[in-house]
Specification:
The complex is a heterodimer of chains A (402) and B (134). With 402 residues, chain A is an alpha+beta fold. Chain A has a domain at 1-33. Chain A contains 6 helices and 24 strands. Chain A has a 4-stranded antiparallel beta sheet with strand order 1-24-23-22, covered by helices on one side. A 4-stranded antiparallel beta sheet of chain A has the order 2-3-4-5, with no helix packed on it. A 4-stranded antiparallel beta sheet of chain A has the order 6-7-8-9, with no helix packed on it. In chain A, helix 5 packs antiparallel against helix 6. Chain A is globular. Chain B has a single domain (3-126), classed as Glutaredoxin, CATH 3.40.30.10. Chain B contains 5 helices and 5 strands; from the N terminus they run αβαβαβαββα. Chain B has a 5-stranded mixed beta sheet, covered by helices on one side. In chain B, strand 1 (19-24), helix 2 and strand 2 form a beta-alpha-beta unit. Classes of the chains: A alpha+beta (402), B alpha/beta (134). Chain A binds chain B through residues 52, 54-62, 80-82, 336, 384, 388-389, and chain B through 25-26, 54-60, 63-64, 66-67, 82.
Protein backbone atom coordinates (compact mmCIF):
# COMPACT_ATOMS: atom_id res chain seq x y z
CA UNK A 1 0.00 0.00 0.00
CA UNK A 2 2.68 2.50 1.14
CA UNK A 3 4.93 1.33 -1.63
CA UNK A 4 2.21 2.07 -4.23
CA UNK A 5 1.53 5.51 -2.71
CA UNK A 6 5.23 6.32 -2.62
CA UNK A 7 5.58 5.31 -6.28
CA UNK A 8 2.56 7.44 -7.29
CA UNK A 9 3.99 10.50 -5.50
CA UNK A 10 7.37 10.00 -7.21
CA UNK A 11 5.62 9.77 -10.57
CA UNK A 12 3.66 12.99 -9.95
CA UNK A 13 6.85 14.81 -8.87
CA UNK A 14 8.59 13.60 -12.04
CA UNK A 15 5.76 14.81 -14.26
CA UNK A 16 5.67 18.17 -12.48
CA UNK A 17 9.43 18.60 -12.98
CA UNK A 18 9.05 17.87 -16.69
CA UNK A 19 6.18 20.33 -17.00
CA UNK A 20 8.16 23.07 -15.26
CA UNK A 21 11.14 22.35 -17.53
CA UNK A 22 8.94 22.52 -20.65
CA UNK A 23 7.43 25.80 -19.45
CA UNK A 24 10.87 27.32 -18.81
CA UNK A 25 12.15 26.25 -22.23
CA UNK A 26 9.04 27.69 -23.92
CA UNK A 27 9.42 30.94 -21.99
CA UNK A 28 13.11 31.29 -22.94
CA UNK A 29 12.24 30.62 -26.61
CA UNK A 30 9.48 33.26 -26.58
CA UNK A 31 11.76 35.90 -25.10
CA UNK A 32 14.59 35.06 -27.51
CA UNK A 33 12.71 34.74 -30.78
CA UNK A 34 9.26 36.19 -30.17
CA UNK A 35 9.56 39.55 -31.88
CA UNK A 36 6.15 40.71 -30.75
CA UNK A 37 7.08 40.24 -27.11
CA UNK A 38 10.29 42.12 -27.57
CA UNK A 39 8.62 44.91 -29.54
CA UNK A 40 5.72 45.20 -27.11
CA UNK A 41 8.12 45.82 -24.27
CA UNK A 42 10.29 48.31 -26.08
CA UNK A 43 8.08 50.32 -28.38
CA UNK A 44 4.54 50.03 -27.05
CA UNK A 45 3.77 51.75 -23.77
CA UNK A 46 0.52 49.84 -23.54
CA UNK A 47 -1.42 47.21 -25.49
CA UNK A 48 -5.20 46.89 -25.27
CA UNK A 49 -7.24 43.95 -26.55
CA UNK A 50 -10.57 45.15 -27.90
CA UNK A 51 -13.18 42.43 -27.64
CA UNK A 52 -15.17 42.11 -30.84
CA UNK A 53 -18.79 41.05 -30.61
CA UNK A 54 -20.24 38.48 -33.01
CA UNK A 55 -20.91 41.05 -35.74
CA UNK A 56 -17.71 43.08 -35.59
CA UNK A 57 -14.52 42.22 -37.47
CA UNK A 58 -11.00 43.54 -37.93
CA UNK A 59 -10.52 46.06 -40.75
CA UNK A 60 -10.08 44.68 -44.23
CA UNK A 61 -7.19 45.39 -46.59
CA UNK A 62 -7.81 49.13 -46.95
CA UNK A 63 -8.16 49.70 -43.22
CA UNK A 64 -10.84 51.39 -41.18
CA UNK A 65 -11.47 54.52 -39.18
CA UNK A 66 -10.60 54.63 -35.48
CA UNK A 67 -11.21 57.79 -33.46
CA UNK A 68 -10.93 58.75 -29.84
CA UNK A 69 -14.06 60.60 -28.60
CA UNK A 70 -13.20 63.49 -26.29
CA UNK A 71 -16.65 63.86 -24.78
CA UNK A 72 -17.14 60.23 -23.76
CA UNK A 73 -13.57 58.92 -23.43
CA UNK A 74 -14.53 56.04 -25.75
CA UNK A 75 -12.85 54.71 -28.88
CA UNK A 76 -15.08 54.80 -31.96
CA UNK A 77 -14.48 52.21 -34.71
CA UNK A 78 -16.12 51.93 -38.12
CA UNK A 79 -17.45 48.37 -38.55
CA UNK A 80 -18.07 48.24 -42.29
CA UNK A 81 -20.02 44.98 -42.19
CA UNK A 82 -22.91 46.35 -40.18
CA UNK A 83 -22.47 49.93 -41.37
CA UNK A 84 -22.19 51.13 -37.85
CA UNK A 85 -19.82 52.81 -35.43
CA UNK A 86 -18.88 50.61 -32.49
CA UNK A 87 -17.64 52.31 -29.32
CA UNK A 88 -15.09 50.57 -27.09
CA UNK A 89 -14.24 51.27 -23.49
CA UNK A 90 -10.47 51.77 -23.54
CA UNK A 91 -10.00 50.21 -20.12
CA UNK A 92 -12.02 47.01 -20.44
CA UNK A 93 -11.90 46.69 -24.25
CA UNK A 94 -15.64 45.94 -24.24
CA UNK A 95 -18.12 47.31 -26.78
CA UNK A 96 -20.38 49.70 -24.89
CA UNK A 97 -22.33 51.58 -27.55
CA UNK A 98 -23.23 51.58 -31.24
CA UNK A 99 -24.34 54.15 -33.83
CA UNK A 100 -26.12 52.26 -36.57
CA UNK A 101 -26.73 53.90 -39.93
CA UNK A 102 -29.94 53.16 -41.72
CA UNK A 103 -29.81 52.29 -45.44
CA UNK A 104 -33.57 52.89 -45.83
CA UNK A 105 -36.21 55.44 -44.93
CA UNK A 106 -35.97 59.09 -43.97
CA UNK A 107 -32.79 58.54 -41.92
CA UNK A 108 -31.08 56.67 -44.76
CA UNK A 109 -27.41 57.11 -45.52
CA UNK A 110 -27.30 55.80 -49.09
CA UNK A 111 -24.36 54.29 -50.92
CA UNK A 112 -21.46 52.58 -49.19
CA UNK A 113 -20.45 54.57 -46.10
CA UNK A 114 -16.80 54.11 -45.21
CA UNK A 115 -15.60 57.17 -43.35
CA UNK A 116 -16.82 58.97 -40.24
CA UNK A 117 -15.61 61.87 -38.19
CA UNK A 118 -16.89 62.11 -34.62
CA UNK A 119 -17.10 65.78 -33.65
CA UNK A 120 -19.39 65.22 -30.69
CA UNK A 121 -22.41 63.00 -29.95
CA UNK A 122 -24.72 65.32 -31.89
CA UNK A 123 -22.43 65.81 -34.88
CA UNK A 124 -20.95 62.78 -36.59
CA UNK A 125 -19.95 63.32 -40.21
CA UNK A 126 -20.40 60.39 -42.58
CA UNK A 127 -18.96 60.02 -46.06
CA UNK A 128 -20.44 57.41 -48.35
CA UNK A 129 -19.03 55.99 -51.58
CA UNK A 130 -21.28 56.24 -54.63
CA UNK A 131 -22.72 59.40 -53.01
CA UNK A 132 -19.56 61.24 -53.83
CA UNK A 133 -20.75 64.78 -53.53
CA UNK A 134 -22.48 64.57 -50.19
CA UNK A 135 -21.42 64.55 -46.58
CA UNK A 136 -24.05 63.45 -44.09
CA UNK A 137 -24.37 64.63 -40.52
CA UNK A 138 -25.91 62.24 -37.99
CA UNK A 139 -26.19 62.05 -34.21
CA UNK A 140 -25.01 59.14 -32.08
CA UNK A 141 -28.41 57.46 -32.41
CA UNK A 142 -28.01 57.38 -36.20
CA UNK A 143 -30.59 60.11 -36.77
CA UNK A 144 -29.83 62.24 -39.81
CA UNK A 145 -29.29 65.88 -38.87
CA UNK A 146 -28.14 67.47 -42.13
CA UNK A 147 -26.74 66.81 -45.59
CA UNK A 148 -24.00 68.89 -47.14
CA UNK A 149 -24.02 68.77 -50.90
CA UNK A 150 -20.88 69.80 -52.74
CA UNK A 151 -21.76 68.76 -56.26
CA UNK A 152 -19.67 70.74 -58.74
CA UNK A 153 -21.32 72.45 -61.69
CA UNK A 154 -18.76 70.99 -64.04
CA UNK A 155 -19.11 67.49 -62.54
CA UNK A 156 -15.51 67.61 -61.30
CA UNK A 157 -14.03 67.52 -64.76
CA UNK A 158 -11.44 70.12 -63.87
CA UNK A 159 -10.79 69.38 -60.21
CA UNK A 160 -9.87 66.31 -58.13
CA UNK A 161 -12.64 63.74 -58.00
CA UNK A 162 -14.32 63.83 -54.57
CA UNK A 163 -13.18 60.50 -53.20
CA UNK A 164 -12.30 60.89 -49.55
CA UNK A 165 -8.98 59.69 -48.17
CA UNK A 166 -9.34 56.52 -46.05
CA UNK A 167 -8.41 55.57 -42.48
CA UNK A 168 -7.53 58.97 -41.05
CA UNK A 169 -6.96 62.65 -41.78
CA UNK A 170 -9.82 63.08 -44.25
CA UNK A 171 -11.91 65.66 -42.38
CA UNK A 172 -11.07 68.71 -40.32
CA UNK A 173 -13.93 70.60 -38.64
CA UNK A 174 -13.27 74.11 -37.40
CA UNK A 175 -16.03 76.50 -36.34
CA UNK A 176 -18.52 76.81 -39.22
CA UNK A 177 -16.21 75.17 -41.76
CA UNK A 178 -15.18 71.66 -42.61
CA UNK A 179 -12.30 70.70 -44.86
CA UNK A 180 -12.28 67.47 -46.86
CA UNK A 181 -9.16 65.79 -48.07
CA UNK A 182 -9.59 64.08 -51.46
CA UNK A 183 -7.39 61.90 -53.60
CA UNK A 184 -4.95 63.81 -55.77
CA UNK A 185 -5.95 63.33 -59.40
CA UNK A 186 -4.11 61.00 -61.78
CA UNK A 187 -4.75 63.63 -64.44
CA UNK A 188 -2.36 66.52 -64.12
CA UNK A 189 -4.74 69.18 -65.41
CA UNK A 190 -7.15 68.44 -62.56
CA UNK A 191 -4.51 69.28 -59.99
CA UNK A 192 -4.60 72.99 -60.75
CA UNK A 193 -6.18 73.35 -57.30
CA UNK A 194 -5.31 71.63 -54.02
CA UNK A 195 -7.21 68.37 -53.34
CA UNK A 196 -8.80 70.02 -50.31
CA UNK A 197 -12.40 71.23 -50.30
CA UNK A 198 -13.50 73.97 -47.90
CA UNK A 199 -17.19 74.06 -46.98
CA UNK A 200 -19.10 76.63 -44.98
CA UNK A 201 -21.86 74.78 -43.12
CA UNK A 202 -23.88 77.97 -42.54
CA UNK A 203 -23.89 79.48 -46.03
CA UNK A 204 -23.25 76.13 -47.83
CA UNK A 205 -20.60 77.89 -49.93
CA UNK A 206 -17.77 75.64 -50.93
CA UNK A 207 -14.76 75.39 -53.17
CA UNK A 208 -11.27 73.94 -53.49
CA UNK A 209 -8.29 75.58 -51.91
CA UNK A 210 -6.09 77.02 -54.64
CA UNK A 211 -2.87 76.05 -52.89
CA UNK A 212 -0.90 73.93 -52.17
CA UNK A 213 -1.23 72.23 -55.53
CA UNK A 214 -0.12 68.62 -55.60
CA UNK A 215 2.33 66.83 -57.90
CA UNK A 216 2.46 69.65 -60.43
CA UNK A 217 6.10 68.86 -61.27
CA UNK A 218 5.81 65.08 -61.26
CA UNK A 219 5.52 62.73 -64.22
CA UNK A 220 2.30 61.03 -63.13
CA UNK A 221 2.67 58.31 -65.75
CA UNK A 222 5.35 56.84 -63.50
CA UNK A 223 2.78 56.04 -60.84
CA UNK A 224 1.04 52.77 -61.75
CA UNK A 225 -2.68 52.72 -62.33
CA UNK A 226 -4.46 51.45 -59.26
CA UNK A 227 -2.06 53.23 -56.92
CA UNK A 228 -4.69 55.70 -55.64
CA UNK A 229 -4.58 54.55 -52.05
CA UNK A 230 -0.83 54.38 -51.89
CA UNK A 231 0.36 57.45 -53.77
CA UNK A 232 -2.55 59.83 -54.25
CA UNK A 233 -4.22 60.21 -50.85
CA UNK A 234 -3.78 63.61 -49.23
CA UNK A 235 -4.18 63.94 -45.46
CA UNK A 236 -4.86 66.83 -43.11
CA UNK A 237 -4.02 67.71 -39.54
CA UNK A 238 -5.21 70.80 -37.69
CA UNK A 239 -3.76 72.72 -34.78
CA UNK A 240 -6.67 74.70 -33.35
CA UNK A 241 -4.37 76.66 -31.02
CA UNK A 242 -2.92 78.66 -33.89
CA UNK A 243 -5.34 77.85 -36.74
CA UNK A 244 -2.68 76.04 -38.73
CA UNK A 245 -3.67 73.27 -41.10
CA UNK A 246 -0.95 70.89 -42.22
CA UNK A 247 -1.29 68.94 -45.47
CA UNK A 248 0.56 65.74 -46.35
CA UNK A 249 1.08 64.40 -49.88
CA UNK A 250 2.54 60.89 -50.18
CA UNK A 251 5.25 61.79 -52.69
CA UNK A 252 6.48 64.98 -51.09
CA UNK A 253 9.28 65.23 -48.53
CA UNK A 254 7.74 68.51 -47.45
CA UNK A 255 4.67 69.33 -45.46
CA UNK A 256 2.47 72.25 -46.39
CA UNK A 257 1.32 74.56 -43.61
CA UNK A 258 -1.70 76.72 -44.31
CA UNK A 259 -2.53 79.70 -42.14
CA UNK A 260 -4.60 82.78 -42.98
CA UNK A 261 -4.63 81.79 -46.65
CA UNK A 262 -0.84 81.64 -46.87
CA UNK A 263 0.96 78.37 -47.59
CA UNK A 264 4.38 77.69 -46.12
CA UNK A 265 6.48 74.68 -47.14
CA UNK A 266 8.27 72.89 -44.32
CA UNK A 267 10.99 70.29 -44.83
CA UNK A 268 9.84 67.18 -42.96
CA UNK A 269 11.78 64.30 -44.47
CA UNK A 270 12.60 61.03 -42.83
CA UNK A 271 16.27 60.17 -42.38
CA UNK A 272 15.38 56.84 -44.01
CA UNK A 273 13.90 58.25 -47.21
CA UNK A 274 16.45 59.22 -49.85
CA UNK A 275 13.85 59.63 -52.58
CA UNK A 276 10.94 58.01 -54.32
CA UNK A 277 12.19 55.11 -56.41
CA UNK A 278 9.21 55.01 -58.75
CA UNK A 279 9.87 58.57 -59.89
CA UNK A 280 13.45 57.92 -60.95
CA UNK A 281 13.45 54.28 -61.98
CA UNK A 282 14.45 53.30 -65.50
CA UNK A 283 11.04 52.55 -66.90
CA UNK A 284 12.49 50.82 -69.93
CA UNK A 285 13.15 47.76 -67.86
CA UNK A 286 9.44 47.18 -67.45
CA UNK A 287 6.39 48.41 -69.30
CA UNK A 288 4.47 50.81 -67.10
CA UNK A 289 1.43 48.56 -66.91
CA UNK A 290 3.45 45.40 -66.57
CA UNK A 291 2.47 43.37 -63.53
CA UNK A 292 6.09 43.05 -62.44
CA UNK A 293 6.79 46.75 -62.71
CA UNK A 294 3.70 47.52 -60.66
CA UNK A 295 4.58 45.03 -57.97
CA UNK A 296 8.08 46.40 -57.70
CA UNK A 297 7.40 50.13 -57.68
CA UNK A 298 4.54 49.68 -55.26
CA UNK A 299 7.36 49.12 -52.76
CA UNK A 300 8.43 52.73 -53.29
CA UNK A 301 8.54 54.98 -50.24
CA UNK A 302 5.54 57.14 -49.49
CA UNK A 303 4.46 59.43 -46.66
CA UNK A 304 1.21 57.98 -45.37
CA UNK A 305 -0.01 60.96 -43.40
CA UNK A 306 0.28 63.58 -40.70
CA UNK A 307 -1.47 63.58 -37.30
CA UNK A 308 -1.77 66.30 -34.69
CA UNK A 309 -1.81 65.33 -31.04
CA UNK A 310 -3.60 68.31 -29.47
CA UNK A 311 -3.21 66.83 -25.98
CA UNK A 312 0.58 66.65 -26.05
CA UNK A 313 1.16 69.39 -28.66
CA UNK A 314 2.95 67.09 -31.08
CA UNK A 315 2.76 66.22 -34.76
CA UNK A 316 3.40 62.68 -36.00
CA UNK A 317 4.26 61.85 -39.61
CA UNK A 318 4.21 58.26 -40.82
CA UNK A 319 6.31 57.10 -43.74
CA UNK A 320 6.38 53.72 -45.41
CA UNK A 321 10.00 53.04 -46.30
CA UNK A 322 11.43 51.96 -49.63
CA UNK A 323 11.09 48.24 -50.28
CA UNK A 324 11.79 48.25 -54.01
CA UNK A 325 15.02 46.24 -54.08
CA UNK A 326 13.61 43.56 -51.76
CA UNK A 327 10.37 43.37 -53.75
CA UNK A 328 12.33 43.23 -56.99
CA UNK A 329 14.59 40.38 -55.90
CA UNK A 330 11.56 38.54 -54.54
CA UNK A 331 9.72 39.01 -57.83
CA UNK A 332 12.67 38.12 -60.04
CA UNK A 333 13.50 34.98 -58.04
CA UNK A 334 9.82 34.03 -57.88
CA UNK A 335 10.22 33.71 -54.13
CA UNK A 336 7.18 33.20 -51.90
CA UNK A 337 9.01 34.48 -48.84
CA UNK A 338 7.13 37.16 -46.91
CA UNK A 339 8.80 40.55 -47.03
CA UNK A 340 7.45 42.77 -44.24
CA UNK A 341 6.82 46.46 -44.86
CA UNK A 342 9.03 48.89 -43.01
CA UNK A 343 7.84 52.14 -41.50
CA UNK A 344 9.10 55.13 -39.63
CA UNK A 345 7.19 57.39 -37.27
CA UNK A 346 8.56 60.88 -37.04
CA UNK A 347 7.64 63.07 -34.12
CA UNK A 348 7.62 66.87 -34.37
CA UNK A 349 6.83 69.61 -31.89
CA UNK A 350 3.90 71.92 -32.61
CA UNK A 351 6.26 74.19 -34.60
CA UNK A 352 7.17 71.22 -36.84
CA UNK A 353 10.73 70.83 -35.58
CA UNK A 354 11.64 67.15 -35.65
CA UNK A 355 12.31 65.55 -32.27
CA UNK A 356 12.81 61.88 -33.06
CA UNK A 357 12.07 59.00 -35.40
CA UNK A 358 11.09 55.37 -34.65
CA UNK A 359 11.50 52.47 -37.07
CA UNK A 360 9.30 49.38 -37.09
CA UNK A 361 7.84 46.79 -39.47
CA UNK A 362 4.43 45.40 -40.36
CA UNK A 363 5.23 42.40 -38.17
CA UNK A 364 4.77 44.70 -35.20
CA UNK A 365 2.08 47.19 -36.25
CA UNK A 366 -0.25 47.94 -39.15
CA UNK A 367 -0.86 51.71 -39.03
CA UNK A 368 -2.20 51.83 -42.59
CA UNK A 369 -5.19 49.84 -41.37
CA UNK A 370 -5.83 51.77 -38.19
CA UNK A 371 -4.35 54.68 -36.26
CA UNK A 372 -5.64 57.35 -33.86
CA UNK A 373 -4.57 59.87 -31.26
CA UNK A 374 -5.81 60.00 -27.66
CA UNK A 375 -4.65 62.04 -24.63
CA UNK A 376 -2.14 59.25 -23.96
CA UNK A 377 -0.55 59.58 -27.40
CA UNK A 378 -0.52 57.76 -30.72
CA UNK A 379 -2.14 54.33 -31.07
CA UNK A 380 -1.81 51.87 -33.94
CA UNK A 381 -3.56 48.66 -34.86
CA UNK A 382 -1.45 45.55 -34.26
CA UNK A 383 -1.35 42.52 -36.57
CA UNK A 384 -4.06 39.97 -35.91
CA UNK A 385 -2.49 37.31 -33.71
CA UNK A 386 -5.18 36.54 -31.15
CA UNK A 387 -8.00 35.19 -33.30
CA UNK A 388 -10.87 36.93 -35.01
CA UNK A 389 -12.62 38.09 -31.84
CA UNK A 390 -9.77 40.19 -30.50
CA UNK A 391 -8.43 43.39 -32.08
CA UNK A 392 -5.28 44.68 -30.42
CA UNK A 393 -4.08 48.26 -30.40
CA UNK A 394 -0.76 49.55 -29.12
CA UNK A 395 0.26 52.91 -27.70
CA UNK A 396 3.56 53.92 -29.26
CA UNK A 397 6.31 54.85 -26.86
CA UNK A 398 8.79 57.35 -28.28
CA UNK A 399 12.35 57.69 -27.18
CA UNK A 400 13.10 61.39 -27.20
CA UNK A 401 16.85 60.94 -26.75
CA UNK A 402 17.33 60.32 -30.51
CA UNK B 1 -6.25 23.68 -64.21
CA UNK B 2 -6.48 20.51 -62.17
CA UNK B 3 -9.17 21.54 -59.73
CA UNK B 4 -9.20 18.35 -57.67
CA UNK B 5 -5.65 18.99 -56.42
CA UNK B 6 -6.52 22.62 -55.85
CA UNK B 7 -9.55 21.66 -53.75
CA UNK B 8 -7.60 19.07 -51.85
CA UNK B 9 -4.99 21.62 -50.85
CA UNK B 10 -7.75 24.04 -49.91
CA UNK B 11 -9.66 21.41 -47.93
CA UNK B 12 -12.85 22.14 -49.85
CA UNK B 13 -15.24 19.84 -51.71
CA UNK B 14 -17.64 20.16 -54.62
CA UNK B 15 -20.64 17.90 -55.04
CA UNK B 16 -22.43 18.16 -58.36
CA UNK B 17 -21.76 21.83 -58.96
CA UNK B 18 -20.85 22.97 -62.47
CA UNK B 19 -19.18 26.19 -61.42
CA UNK B 20 -17.12 27.61 -58.65
CA UNK B 21 -16.72 31.36 -58.23
CA UNK B 22 -13.50 32.34 -56.47
CA UNK B 23 -13.88 35.85 -55.04
CA UNK B 24 -10.81 37.84 -53.92
CA UNK B 25 -12.33 39.82 -51.06
CA UNK B 26 -9.55 42.40 -51.08
CA UNK B 27 -9.43 42.68 -54.87
CA UNK B 28 -11.12 45.11 -57.25
CA UNK B 29 -13.97 46.64 -55.22
CA UNK B 30 -16.41 46.93 -58.12
CA UNK B 31 -15.80 43.28 -59.03
CA UNK B 32 -16.33 42.19 -55.43
CA UNK B 33 -19.56 44.18 -55.32
CA UNK B 34 -20.71 42.44 -58.52
CA UNK B 35 -19.75 39.07 -57.05
CA UNK B 36 -21.81 39.68 -53.93
CA UNK B 37 -24.77 40.78 -56.07
CA UNK B 38 -24.53 37.56 -58.06
CA UNK B 39 -23.99 35.42 -54.97
CA UNK B 40 -27.04 36.81 -53.18
CA UNK B 41 -29.24 36.19 -56.20
CA UNK B 42 -27.96 32.66 -56.87
CA UNK B 43 -26.91 31.53 -53.42
CA UNK B 44 -29.23 28.53 -53.31
CA UNK B 45 -28.47 27.35 -56.84
CA UNK B 46 -27.09 23.79 -56.83
CA UNK B 47 -25.01 24.67 -59.88
CA UNK B 48 -22.47 26.85 -58.14
CA UNK B 49 -20.35 27.14 -55.01
CA UNK B 50 -18.45 30.16 -53.74
CA UNK B 51 -14.93 30.37 -52.46
CA UNK B 52 -13.27 33.44 -50.97
CA UNK B 53 -9.59 34.18 -51.25
CA UNK B 54 -7.34 37.20 -50.54
CA UNK B 55 -9.37 38.03 -47.45
CA UNK B 56 -8.43 39.67 -44.15
CA UNK B 57 -11.02 37.94 -42.02
CA UNK B 58 -13.25 34.89 -42.50
CA UNK B 59 -15.44 36.24 -39.73
CA UNK B 60 -16.01 39.50 -41.64
CA UNK B 61 -17.23 37.58 -44.71
CA UNK B 62 -19.51 35.28 -42.72
CA UNK B 63 -21.00 38.19 -40.75
CA UNK B 64 -21.49 40.18 -43.94
CA UNK B 65 -23.37 37.28 -45.55
CA UNK B 66 -25.40 36.94 -42.39
CA UNK B 67 -26.30 40.63 -42.45
CA UNK B 68 -27.33 40.18 -46.09
CA UNK B 69 -29.73 37.42 -45.09
CA UNK B 70 -27.63 34.32 -45.78
CA UNK B 71 -27.40 32.54 -42.47
CA UNK B 72 -26.27 29.17 -43.82
CA UNK B 73 -22.64 29.66 -44.82
CA UNK B 74 -22.00 25.99 -45.64
CA UNK B 75 -21.95 26.82 -49.36
CA UNK B 76 -18.91 29.01 -49.07
CA UNK B 77 -15.29 28.07 -48.66
CA UNK B 78 -12.00 29.83 -48.05
CA UNK B 79 -8.79 29.35 -49.94
CA UNK B 80 -5.42 30.76 -49.03
CA UNK B 81 -4.24 33.37 -51.52
CA UNK B 82 -0.97 31.51 -52.02
CA UNK B 83 -2.88 28.41 -53.16
CA UNK B 84 -5.08 30.49 -55.45
CA UNK B 85 -2.11 32.22 -57.08
CA UNK B 86 -0.18 28.99 -57.51
CA UNK B 87 -3.17 27.65 -59.42
CA UNK B 88 -3.27 30.60 -61.77
CA UNK B 89 -6.20 32.43 -60.19
CA UNK B 90 -6.34 36.19 -59.78
CA UNK B 91 -5.98 38.21 -56.60
CA UNK B 92 -7.70 41.14 -58.29
CA UNK B 93 -10.64 39.70 -60.28
CA UNK B 94 -13.14 36.96 -59.47
CA UNK B 95 -12.17 33.68 -61.17
CA UNK B 96 -14.89 31.44 -62.55
CA UNK B 97 -14.07 27.73 -62.64
CA UNK B 98 -16.14 25.64 -65.04
CA UNK B 99 -15.82 22.20 -63.56
CA UNK B 100 -15.32 19.22 -65.79
CA UNK B 101 -15.87 15.60 -64.84
CA UNK B 102 -12.28 14.76 -65.75
CA UNK B 103 -10.93 16.65 -62.73
CA UNK B 104 -10.03 19.67 -64.80
CA UNK B 105 -11.59 23.12 -64.85
CA UNK B 106 -11.57 26.01 -67.27
CA UNK B 107 -10.71 29.29 -65.57
CA UNK B 108 -12.13 32.64 -66.64
CA UNK B 109 -11.31 35.97 -65.01
CA UNK B 110 -14.55 37.92 -64.61
CA UNK B 111 -13.26 41.24 -65.87
CA UNK B 112 -14.95 41.78 -69.24
CA UNK B 113 -15.47 45.51 -69.69
CA UNK B 114 -18.94 45.07 -71.16
CA UNK B 115 -20.12 42.74 -68.36
CA UNK B 116 -20.80 39.93 -70.85
CA UNK B 117 -19.11 37.38 -68.56
CA UNK B 118 -21.55 38.03 -65.73
CA UNK B 119 -24.46 38.02 -68.14
CA UNK B 120 -23.32 34.64 -69.51
CA UNK B 121 -23.04 33.22 -65.99
CA UNK B 122 -26.53 34.45 -65.13
CA UNK B 123 -27.81 32.64 -68.22
CA UNK B 124 -26.09 29.44 -67.12
CA UNK B 125 -27.86 29.65 -63.78
CA UNK B 126 -31.21 29.85 -65.54
CA UNK B 127 -30.58 26.87 -67.83
CA UNK B 128 -31.28 23.25 -66.93
CA UNK B 129 -28.28 21.38 -65.63
CA UNK B 130 -26.01 19.94 -68.27
CA UNK B 131 -22.68 18.29 -67.60
CA UNK B 132 -19.74 20.37 -68.69
CA UNK B 133 -17.86 19.02 -71.72
CA UNK B 134 -14.39 19.94 -72.87
Amino acid sequence: MFWKLNRAIKLIVLIMRKLVLCFLIAKVCTVCVGQTVQFTNEVFGKVIDLKLDNETAMPWYFGSVFQYCDDTDLLAYWNGITKSIKYFDLESGETVKETKLSPYGPEAIPGEPYYFYYHNKDSIFIFSEFQNSKLFLVNDRGGKVDTFDFEAKDGYRFTPFPRLTRVSGAIVVHKEHFFLSFNISEQKERNSVAPVLKYNMVTKEHGFLKEPGAYRDLDLSRIPKGGQHEFYESRLAFNADNNEMVINYPLSQKLYVLRDGIVKEVEAKSKSVKGFELLSRDKNRFEVNDVGYKKIVFGSARYFGIFYDQYNKLFYRLVKLDNVSKTESKYLSNSKKYVPDSYSWMIFDSGLSKKTEVLFTSREATPEKGVFVSPKGLWVLLPNSKGEDIMSIGLLKFNEKD
Amino acid sequence: MDYSLFLKEAGFEVDNEEFMLVIPQNGCSTCVKKSYGFLLKNYESPKIKYVFTHYSSQKAIKVRLNVLGKEDVSRIGFIDLRVALENGLSQMYPSLLEIGKDGKAKVTFMNAEDGSDWQWLEEQMEQDSEPYKF
